[in-house]
Specification:
This protein is mainly alpha-helical. The chain has a single domain, classed as ACP-like (Non-ribosomal Peptide Synthetase Peptidyl Carrier Protein, Chain A, Orthogonal Bundle), CATH 1.10.1200.10. The protein contains 5 helices and no strands. Helix 1 crosses helix 4 (71-81). The chain is globular and about 35 Å long. 13% of the residues are buried.
Amino acid sequence: MDRAGLRRDLHALIAECAPDLIGDLPDDSPLITSGVVESAALLSVALWVEGQLGGEIDITSFDLVAEWDSIGGILDFVERHAPAAAGAARRGS
């Protein structure tokens, strides 16, 4: 799926978890530090990321606020850790 499709899906998930959210959320809007995404919603985001990556992730192995405090950050994380990106990186080595 392309980044725009991933963004739509992620935005829909966040909107579902934060029903008071009005309108479109810019990719750089803070999610965790603003309180838009709290613990239950963060679990949903983690499950969504795992679904995109095709496996489990250890959310204790990185700084959630630094990596996932925005839609853009979450999308960047998915793109960096996607199996196709990992294979391309190995082929380029």
